[in-house]
Write a structure and sequence with these properties.
about 80 residues, single chain, two-stranded antiparallel ribbon, 2 strands, 3 helices, elongated, mainly alpha
Length: about 80
């Protein structure tokens, strides 16, 4: 691989690892500590309940849009973006 391809894959891999780490955190770690998080109240609802019912889903949708935007920027900077 050329130097430009190495940089592209390094950036793409870093983004993927970041997204997977966030996914693991919001999928498992938050829910593992749900009882402790229930001591914190947000708008009258326990934080653990909120994260289990809605919070994680909202985070996942935000992560999808963030990933798409970040990967598109990497693709454009590397010259491999799809034409619109």
């Amino acid at each position: 691989m050329s130097g430009k391809e190495d940089i592209y894959w390094r950036k793409t891999s870093k983004l993927m690892i970041t997204m997977m780490s966030l996914w693991i955190f919001f999928s498992f770690v938050i829910h593992f500590f749900v009882n402790q998080l229930n001591a914190i109240k947000i708008i009258g609802f326990p934080l653990g309940f909120y994260m289990a019912s809605q919070g994680s889903l909202i985070i996942f949708v935000v992560m999808l849009f963030w990933f798409a935007k970040a990967q598109d920027k990497i693709d454009r900077d590397s010259g491999v973006a799809e034409e619109e």
